[in-house]
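If you are new to this repository, start here. Below is one unmodified record pulled from the training split, so you can see the exact layout before writing a loader.
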Amino acid sequence: MELRILTRIVACFEVVLLSALLAPVQGTLPLVVPKDATARIGQTAQFDCQPNQVTEELKWFIYNNQPTDQKIFYTKNGNAPTFLPEVDTKKFGSNGTYSLVVKDLKVGDSATFSCSVSAVQEAFANLIVIDSLKATVTPISRLGVGSNVMIYCNLIYGAPSRSSVKKPLAEDHDPQLRLLIGQRDLNAPVYITQPGEKVAIVNITIQSEDLGHDLHCEMSSTASGVKTLIYSNVSLNLPSSILGVNTTKFDVMLNEVVLCSAAERPMPYVRWVPVRNTGTDSETDETPGYSLLTLDHVGKDIIWNCSARYDLTGPPFRNVTFTFNVIEGTEVSSTAAILQSLPGVTTCIVIWLLLSQFASRMSSSSCL
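And here is the target side for that same chain:
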């Protein structure tokens, strides 16, 4: 009986003791905790932290993967931040409260910051600083539907170590890379070439849906629910098309280039065939998917047929007649027409560009 009473007394004492030990820790939890952040070089990052009571001491620390931890500044009993003598106050500051402000960010400022309350409870926040993002296409000339190109995007950034014992870097905070042409995700694999550098690289074939779109390299990083997007764009000089125009007669400028495209599967062979006032009896080269025609002489009612066929030895299954009035001028014509056709029949597109532009941007030759 006495042993049972003694056991109860000891159990009650343990509960009281445990509550007493936990009470100070619970009382020092910050009212406001700092949040993860992603920023670009030259920008400013602010980390907010506030103790529950103004009588509690708050200190800021930085963990930048060095052997020792560096104290930034501290506040005490609600006073304004007091900086240590060795702290660069042009770099680190405060907004007059308990917040830590880091100015003119550099890649080396990427770190884990700690807000410590009464030397008992710490709240951590990771900072990622993006240095540069650059997309590249090789080759950039003579592109068209069916062209094979190598596309890659290089990201330079600074980030805390993912294995940090203070606060591991969240997966969605770690910068992610995507390569897109328009809305088409190229599903490019991403490689870490060295700490602080990632490369997305893919070898693709230009498709008809890529017409009129540029290449986008997208970097995304989500910190504390806030998504940061940064883009690097490369113009592929692919011509665009305007849907719904079904006329086959156009006024164009001298030396403009006309493109006729077929988007059937399998891809047919396409060529331009002279009909009247063309100044030549020669047909254009017959190539898979599209054919180019240079309108290099002035005249009215210049008529060409765009012809498409599946077999080079067989007859064309589709002919579209176009009439051009070619005039001298320097303005760039931006008109493009897509000619509607019956279901199952090749769709033809006409797009013209100045020859001078086309010579330097042969990459614009492509088809839907």
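Two things worth knowing about this chain: Residues 15-27, 240-246, 331-368 have pLDDT under 50 and may be disordered. The helical segments are 2-27, 355-360.
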